[in-house]
Amino acid sequence: MTKNKKTTDTISTTAVATPLVELTKSVSTVRGKISVLSVASEMYPFIKTGGLADVVGALPEALAEQNVSVTTFLPAYPAVKSTVANTIPVLDLPAFFGGNAKILSGQVNGLSLFILDAPHLFERAGNPYSDASGNDWQDNPERYAALSMAAAMIGWGAIEGFKPDIVHVHDWQAALTPAYLHYLGEGRHQPKTVLTIHNLAFQGQFPAHVFARLNLPNHAYSMEGVEYYNAVGYLKAGINFADAITTVSPTYAREICSAEGGMGLDGLLRKRGNAVSGIINGIDINIWNPASDALLASSFDATSIEKRLMNKRAIETQFGLPQADTPLFCLVSRLTWQKGIDLIIDSIDAMVGMGARLVVLGTGDRGLEAALYAAVSHHPTQVAVRIGYDEGVSHLLQGGSDAILVPSRFEPCGLTQLYGLRYGCVPVVSQVGGLADTVIDANDAAITARAATGVNFHQITPAGFQAAVDRTIKLYHQHDVWRGMQQAGMHSDVAWRRSAAKYVQLYTGLLR
Q: Which positions bind ADP-alpha-D-glucose (predicted)?
C-alpha cells in the first residue's frame, strides 16, 4: 500500500473569531434535548435527486416534536449556497482536500444548518454527483471524504457551542464519518453514530489508490477497516464502525442480511447482528396534503374523492391525452432496472389492450427513455411520457391518476407509494422491501375488512406485473370497492411521528 504521508493531524483548522452568541442559541444542545448532527449529500428543499433528500428534509421537524434538536450538515452546492442566506463562518479549514474551505452556519425556515463551503469540491452546476454527460465527477471520493472528515470534526466539538450527542449519517456519501471518528478521535469527544442505508446498491466503492488521499492512518486500509475487495468501500466502512445501522424499512433490513439481497455486504451486516434494524420512512404530510395542495387543479380529501376528477382532466390536458373515463396509471420514478421499468415497457401493449392508459414522469437510463418514447409513437392516445422531473407535475399525477405503478425489483422503502396512499392514487407494487411494509394487498379478506390499500404482486416478471394490472383494472370497475381502497389509503398513517419516535428510542438506547 502506498504510504499515506498526509495524515489528518496535519490538516489545520481554525475556529472563526466571530461573535457566536446568536449561533450558540441556534445550534447548541438545548438542556434536556438530544443533540443530533445529521450528515447527508442532499436535503429537500435545497438540493434533491431522490427520496434521500425528502427524508433528510423531513426528519428534523419530526424529531423536534420528540425533544430532539437536529442540525443538518450539507455540501455547499450552488443551489444550497443561494438558498441559505445570512450564513456565519464558524470554522476555517485551510488546505482541506486540495483547497481552502470553511464551515458556515445558517437557518432557513426553522432548519438549523451547517454547510461545507469548499468551492474546489462543490461549486459546480447541475447534478451533485455527475457532470452534464451523466459521468460521475472523478473527484467524488475526495468530495465526500471531505464531507465526512468535516462531519467528524464537528462531532468532536470543533465548532464553539456545538457538541452533538449523536452523529447520524446517510448513505455512502457520509459513511466515512464513523471511520474518521474511530481512527482519529483518540482523546476527543466521541458522539454515538448512526448510519442509515437508503439503498445498498450505491456503496461508494473506489480504487485502492484513493486511500492515500483520505487522510486516514495506514492501518485503516485493512479488512477490519475501509478496505473492500482490494478497493476502498465507503459504505462498508460506515457499516463497520457505526454504533447502529438502520435501513428505511423492516423488510429491507432483513433482505440485505441475506445472500440474495446483501450485494456483497450481507456477511458484515449479519456480523453486526442486533445493531441492524429497519425504521420505515414517513412523508411530510404538510407538503403532501391533498386538502391544501396548491399544485393540484382541485384539492380534495377522503370525503370528497370525486373532486379528483378535475385533476385527472388536468393531467390529460398537460400530457395531450383525450379525455376518457378509463383507468389512468402513472409512473413517477427514476428510469432504471431496479425500479422495474423494463417490466412496464414490456407490458404497455398488454395494458392498452386491457383498456388502461399510462402517463410517465421520470429520467434515467437512455435506453429505457427511448423505449418509452417508442411506446408513445405506437399508442399516442393512451401513453404519454415526460422525461425529467417536476415537483408540481408529480403532485398532480398523484392527485389525479387512478393508480401508481411501483414494480421495483428491490425497494428499501419507496416514497411514491406513500404519496399515492395519501392522495387516493392506488399503489400497484411488487412485494419487496418497504413496499411490502406499507401497502395492504386487495385480497378478499382485506377488501371485506375495508383495509385494502393497493395491489401487491410477488412474481417480478412481465406476466406477474400484467396480472397485477389486470386485477387493478377489475377493482377499478367495482366502484364501491375502489372507493373503499382509496379511502383506506388516505387514512393510512404515513406521517413521520411514529417513525421519529423509533429513532428517538434508538438514540436514547445508544446514549444510555
A: 48
Write the DSSP assignment of 105-133 as a string of letters. Answer: EEEETTEEEEEEE-HHHH---S-SSB-TT
* Distance between CA atoms of residues 483 and 400, nearest Å: 14
Backbone angles phi, psi at 169, to 5 degrees: -110, 150
Cβ pair 175, 169 in contact under 8 A: yes
Check whether 339 is labelled as a binding-site residue: no
CATH 1.20.1250.20 for domain 36-282+497-511, yes or no, is no
**Residue range(s) in the chain whose domain bears CATH number 3.40.50.2000:** 36-282+497-511, 305-490
DSSP states along 69-105: EEEEEEE--HHHHHHS-S-EEEEEETT-SSS-EEEEE
Residue type, 508: T
Paired with 101 in beta bridges are 93
CATH topology of domain 305-490: Rossmann fold (3.40.50)
Evaluate the omega torsion of the peptide bond into residue 191 and state whether it is cis, within 30 degrees of 0: no
Q: Could you give the strand order of the β-sheet that contains 357-364, starting from the edge strand earlier in sequence?
A: 383-387, 357-364, 328-335, 403-406, 426-430, 455-457
477 burial type by CB count under 10 A (0-12 exposed, 13-18 middle, 19+ buried):
exposed
> Which of helix, strand or coil describes residue 18?
coil
- Full pLDDT tens readout for the chain, 512 residues: 333 333 333 455 555 433 333 333 333 344 469 999 999 999 999 999 888 999 999 999 999 999 999 999 999 999 999 998 789 999 999 999 999 999 999 999 889 999 999 999 999 988 899 998 889 999 999 999 999 999 999 999 999 999 999 999 999 999 999 999 999 999 999 999 999 999 999 999 999 999 999 999 999 999 999 999 999 999 999 999 999 999 999 999 999 999 999 999 999 999 999 999 999 999 999 999 999 999 999 999 999 999 999 999 999 999 999 999 999 999 999 999 999 999 999 999 999 999 999 999 999 999 999 999 999 999 999 999 999 989 999 999 999 999 999 999 999 999 999 999 999 999 999 999 999 999 999 999 999 999 999 999 999 999 999 999 999 999 999 999 999 999 999 999 999 999 999 999 999 999 98
Q: How many Å apart are CA 280 and CA 267, to the nearest integer?
A: 23
